[in-house]
Amino acid sequence: MSLFKDVRNLKKQAKEMVPPEHRGIGGGFRAMRDGIAQANQLMGGVAAEAQKAQYLALQGRVGNARIDAVRDSGTTINENPVVDFDLQVTVDGFAPYTVTHQQTISRLSVAALQPGTTVSVRIDPANPQSLIIA
Q: Which pick of 23, 45, 73, 108 has the fewest CB atoms within 10 Å?
Protein backbone atom coordinates (compact mmCIF):
# COMPACT_ATOMS: atom_id res chain seq x y z
CA MET A 1 0.00 0.00 0.00
CA SER A 2 2.91 2.38 0.65
CA LEU A 3 3.90 2.18 -3.05
CA PHE A 4 0.62 3.83 -4.07
CA LYS A 5 1.03 6.46 -1.38
CA ASP A 6 4.56 7.23 -2.67
CA VAL A 7 3.27 7.55 -6.24
CA ARG A 8 0.47 9.88 -5.05
CA ASN A 9 3.01 12.02 -3.16
CA LEU A 10 5.27 12.19 -6.21
CA LYS A 11 2.34 13.30 -8.40
CA LYS A 12 1.45 15.97 -5.85
CA GLN A 13 5.07 17.24 -5.77
CA ALA A 14 5.23 17.28 -9.57
CA LYS A 15 1.99 19.29 -9.75
CA GLU A 16 3.37 21.80 -7.25
CA MET A 17 6.52 22.22 -9.36
CA VAL A 18 4.55 23.16 -12.50
CA PRO A 19 3.75 26.88 -12.60
CA PRO A 20 0.00 27.58 -12.43
CA GLU A 21 -0.01 29.12 -15.91
CA HIS A 22 1.26 25.80 -17.37
CA ARG A 23 -1.27 23.51 -15.68
CA GLY A 24 -4.08 21.76 -17.53
CA ILE A 25 -4.59 21.46 -21.27
CA GLY A 26 -4.51 25.21 -21.90
CA GLY A 27 -1.44 25.50 -19.73
CA GLY A 28 0.24 22.73 -21.69
CA PHE A 29 -0.28 24.72 -24.87
CA ARG A 30 1.06 27.87 -23.18
CA ALA A 31 4.14 25.92 -22.01
CA MET A 32 4.66 24.62 -25.56
CA ARG A 33 4.28 28.15 -26.98
CA ASP A 34 6.82 29.48 -24.46
CA GLY A 35 9.28 26.70 -25.34
CA ILE A 36 8.94 27.40 -29.05
CA ALA A 37 9.49 31.12 -28.45
CA GLN A 38 12.71 30.35 -26.54
CA ALA A 39 13.89 28.02 -29.33
CA ASN A 40 13.16 30.67 -31.97
CA GLN A 41 15.11 33.26 -29.99
CA LEU A 42 18.10 30.89 -29.72
CA MET A 43 17.96 30.02 -33.42
CA GLY A 44 17.75 33.71 -34.34
CA GLY A 45 20.94 34.32 -32.37
CA VAL A 46 22.68 31.42 -34.10
CA ALA A 47 21.57 32.69 -37.52
CA ALA A 48 22.80 36.22 -36.74
CA GLU A 49 26.18 34.87 -35.61
CA ALA A 50 26.48 32.82 -38.81
CA GLN A 51 25.56 35.82 -40.96
CA LYS A 52 28.15 37.98 -39.17
CA ALA A 53 30.82 35.29 -39.64
CA GLN A 54 30.02 35.03 -43.35
CA TYR A 55 30.18 38.81 -43.81
CA LEU A 56 33.50 39.09 -41.95
CA ALA A 57 34.98 36.12 -43.84
CA LEU A 58 34.31 37.96 -47.11
CA GLN A 59 34.66 41.64 -46.14
CA GLY A 60 36.69 41.62 -42.91
CA ARG A 61 40.24 42.86 -42.60
CA VAL A 62 42.78 40.24 -41.57
CA GLY A 63 44.71 40.76 -38.36
CA ASN A 64 46.12 38.99 -35.33
CA ALA A 65 45.01 38.89 -31.73
CA ARG A 66 46.71 37.70 -28.56
CA ILE A 67 44.34 35.90 -26.21
CA ASP A 68 44.70 37.50 -22.76
CA ALA A 69 41.84 35.64 -21.03
CA VAL A 70 39.30 32.91 -21.76
CA ARG A 71 36.01 32.48 -19.87
CA ASP A 72 33.25 29.94 -20.35
CA SER A 73 29.92 31.74 -20.80
CA GLY A 74 27.98 28.71 -19.54
CA THR A 75 26.17 28.31 -22.87
CA THR A 76 26.64 25.56 -25.43
CA ILE A 77 25.33 25.28 -28.98
CA ASN A 78 25.31 21.77 -30.45
CA GLU A 79 27.62 20.72 -27.60
CA ASN A 80 30.16 23.41 -28.54
CA PRO A 81 30.94 26.03 -25.87
CA VAL A 82 30.25 29.73 -26.24
CA VAL A 83 33.40 31.40 -24.90
CA ASP A 84 34.28 34.96 -23.86
CA PHE A 85 37.75 36.11 -24.93
CA ASP A 86 39.77 39.15 -23.87
CA LEU A 87 41.88 39.95 -26.94
CA GLN A 88 44.70 42.36 -27.79
CA VAL A 89 44.05 43.00 -31.51
CA THR A 90 46.63 44.17 -34.04
CA VAL A 91 45.49 45.10 -37.58
CA ASP A 92 47.32 47.20 -40.18
CA GLY A 93 45.90 50.71 -40.21
CA PHE A 94 44.64 50.54 -36.61
CA ALA A 95 46.42 51.14 -33.33
CA PRO A 96 46.52 47.95 -31.21
CA TYR A 97 43.37 47.75 -29.10
CA THR A 98 41.67 45.52 -26.54
CA VAL A 99 38.29 43.91 -27.10
CA THR A 100 36.10 41.41 -25.26
CA HIS A 101 34.66 38.98 -27.80
CA GLN A 102 32.17 36.12 -27.51
CA GLN A 103 32.21 33.25 -29.99
CA THR A 104 31.05 29.65 -30.29
CA ILE A 105 34.09 27.44 -30.75
CA SER A 106 34.54 23.78 -31.50
CA ARG A 107 35.07 21.79 -28.33
CA LEU A 108 38.02 20.19 -30.12
CA SER A 109 39.81 23.55 -30.38
CA VAL A 110 39.48 24.56 -26.72
CA ALA A 111 43.05 23.46 -25.94
CA ALA A 112 44.44 25.57 -28.80
CA LEU A 113 42.67 28.76 -27.69
CA GLN A 114 44.35 29.47 -24.37
CA PRO A 115 45.78 32.71 -22.90
CA GLY A 116 49.04 33.74 -24.54
CA THR A 117 48.13 32.20 -27.90
CA THR A 118 48.09 34.42 -31.01
CA VAL A 119 45.20 33.77 -33.38
CA SER A 120 44.13 35.09 -36.76
CA VAL A 121 41.08 37.38 -36.70
CA ARG A 122 38.90 39.18 -39.19
CA ILE A 123 37.54 42.55 -38.14
CA ASP A 124 34.76 44.71 -39.49
CA PRO A 125 36.49 47.83 -40.92
CA ALA A 126 33.46 49.97 -39.99
CA ASN A 127 33.40 48.63 -36.40
CA PRO A 128 36.75 47.26 -35.16
CA GLN A 129 35.04 45.87 -32.02
CA SER A 130 33.15 43.42 -34.26
CA LEU A 131 35.36 40.48 -35.20
CA ILE A 132 35.64 36.72 -35.52
CA ILE A 133 38.47 34.41 -34.66
CA ALA A 134 39.30 32.82 -37.99
A: 108
